[in-house]
Amino acid sequence: MRSKECIAMILAGGQGSRLSLLTQRLAKPAVPFGGKYRIIDFSLSNCRNSGIDTIGVLTQYQPLTLNSYIGIGSAWDLDRQNGGVFVLPPYTKENKGEWYKGTADAIYQNMNFIDRYNASYVVVLSGDHIYKMDYSLMLDYHKNKNSEATIAVSQVPWDEAGRFGIMNTDGRRRITEFEEKPKNPKSNLASMGVYIFNWSVLRRYLEDDARDILSNHDFGRNIIPEMLAGRCNLYAYAFNGYWKDVGTVDSYWEANMDLLAETPGLNLYDADWKIYSVDADQPPQYLAPGARVTRSIIADGCMVYGQVDHSILFPGAYVGPGAQIKNSVIMPYVQIGEMAVVNHAVIGRKTVLEPGVMVTGDELGAEVLLVGENLLISRNFRAAKTTAVNEGRESWEYTESQEMAVS
């Protein structure tokens, strides 16, 4: 087997509990985004566009949909004879099966996969962020700095810095201190969850970490601090493009709405850096006479008879006559009845809103109303302290082909 200079490992096993109902049956990287994509499409497309053709995807929580979606990687041109994309769930070893104990342990359990390709460098990625990035430029930076570990950073608003791992650096961008979700951050350079390591160095630290029974087996809490304590060369790589951690319902909604800006920070229409995805194989969208659509993304298979303003509709959504959709994300196969109103909300897939129903979030309080999937909504809902609605009953029959398209 031919050696690979650099391979990628995508951490895609997180539960994403802060996304509430969106991740009850899906791993966070499998959550639909932007009208036709899933969140993991961005990491996989970045790898493909960066020339990295050997990728391990480490799954754990609710993996079935994600595993079947990735398949052999053909949607991203990653079905290769030498290399390609590999789904790597936890497996039984030494007569005992163990879940991944943390991000570092997930890589540790798959060291044989990396060794198989005799890789010099390993790119470790999160599978649940929205961004476009050329990892080959970061690898060049890593080599030029003679770095042993390079961490991509993005400047975040100071009032949000406490949500992230924060890098403190000197004038040469060498990392001098790492703070995990600090109460009083000294910097607003947030880790993007994109790392490049010299494999020979990382391997040693992973083996030491595996022997430490007190460790959380996590890159941010353990590996990076240990490397700093060991005086390794760690550098921050400044990324100035669009990047969003869609870890909450609000941030997920915001990232979708960002796509509708007059000049969006994330350009999905850039032919030089495509975001690839599995084709849903739907008929064209239909806009009925009298329908009105403004500043919205309407996916294939949608039928619109009402009004859609500043919203995103996923494949197979139906908007009835007189219905009004505004500032909302409508998941696959949602049925919105005649004269219904949806505003500042995320509606889960296959949910049915009966005629005249109003489902509205709190625009002034910037609170998004999240409605679960497979529900019949027959009464009005407004955002309250809780943003998740999971009432009603499963109420819609779907053909097998429709189920497969959105599963």
From TrEMBL:
Which enzyme type, at the first EC level? transferase
Task: Please give the organism.
Answer: Methylomusa anaerophila
EC code: 2.7.7.27
The protein's gene is named glgC_3
* One Pfam family hit: Hexapep_GlmU
Q: Which GO terms describe its molecular function?
A: ATP binding; glucose-1-phosphate adenylyltransferase activity
Record function comment: Involved in the biosynthesis of ADP-glucose, a building block required for the elongation reactions to produce glycogen. Catalyzes the reaction between ATP and alpha-D-glucose 1-phosphate (G1P) to produce pyrophosphate and ADP-Glc.
Q: What name does the UniProt record give this protein?
A: Glucose-1-phosphate adenylyltransferase
Where is the site described as Could play a key role in the communication between the regulatory and the substrate sites found in this chain? Answer: 60, 99
CDD domains for the chain:
ADP_Glucose_PP (cd02508), LbH_G1P_AT_C (cd04651)
Pathway stated in the Swiss-Prot or TrEMBL entry: Glycan biosynthesis; glycogen biosynthesis
- Start and end of every Glucose-1-phosphate adenylyltransferase/Bifunctional protein GlmU-like C-terminal hexapeptide domain? 292-362
Annotated binding of alpha-D-glucose 1-phosphate, by residue: 100, 165, 180-181, 191
Q: Which residues form the Nucleotidyl transferase domain?
A: 8-261
Q: Which UniProt keywords apply?
A: ATP-binding, Carbohydrate metabolism, Glycogen biosynthesis, Glycogen metabolism, Nucleotide-binding, Nucleotidyltransferase, Transferase
